[in-house]
Amino acid sequence: MRLGLSLGYWGRGPSADHVPLAQEAERLGYDSVWTAESWGSDVFTPLTWIAARTSRIKLGTAVAQMAARSPTTTAMHALTLDHLSGGRVLLGLGLSGPQVVEGWYGRPFPRSPLTATREYVDVVRQVLRREAPVVLEGRFHSHPYRGEDGSGLGKALKSITHPLRADLPVLLGAEGPKNVEQTTRIADGWLPLYWSPTRPDVYGPAVRRLPEGFVVAPMAQVRVCDDVSEGLLPVKTMLGFYIGGMGHAARNFHADLMARMGYEEEARRIQRLFLEGRREEAVLAVPDAFADEISLVGPRERIAERLELWRKGPVTDLLALAPDRTTLRVLAELNS
Predict the structure, then answer these.
(1) Which residues is 92 bridged to in the sheet?
(2) Terminus of the chain with fewer CB atoms < 10 Å: N or C?
(3) pLDDT, tens only, 245-287
(4) CA Rg, the chain, in Å?
């Protein structure tokens, strides 16, 4: 099982620790470093900054939001950074949810998410292969554009720049069983948001029949500490925000996943408290048991024991949200 460092997205501003942590991860033998975006910092610029200050570690987006860019724009970002970094890019894509897509990006959330995702990946692949001009008569993505509000003058084009790698890996963030099943067919890997090594079946039967070489790279908060309950607080804070605030009360993919994992009553309570403005209560309502099974928290010996569960399943890459160098080092030693 390979290790990756997940840095997430910025809060109020850039973190001074991100580049040093990425450099330390590279020194310790981590395979990859990953950034994210929500409605603030973007996913590609920090990776470019990190690329200039590292030499080997792979550079992943977890995830680049599809609504933020047309698929050709995303492919341009990926092929540009791939050249500048010497072929180190892992392109992780995600659809996000209706509140973010419509509220932040000002675009309609697709009524058929699976179709929209499939078309998006198709266009990205066409750009990277550069075998012919990009052509797709899609429901959500058309190249050239032929909508009634267009000029009708669009011309099919292929990239001026030759991509460094036609097979640059494309990974997808997916939560629902149908989305996961499609991901195994059209992508090179999968980025689960919450992964419990004891409950793989919540993602559907596709997890049991993964293609050869398919990457499964879940994110997990990792923290070496003496007090497990205290160490779980950052995990619960993240869960409270995602389950309570990252989606509408009637349509929240994160809350739905938590419900499928056996915590339906708790998920709905967290949503209710968060939407009522009682955020601290929402965080405290996250069960320790749920936070614990999707993370690696506690003394070194406890993390070592629990890490074995992650190794036994289909996980190929553990993307660690690790806040300090000690945790990075301990995880690298335990995984060696």
Answers:
(1) 171
(2) C
(3) 766 666 677 888 888 888 889 999 999 998 889 999 999 999 9
(4) 20
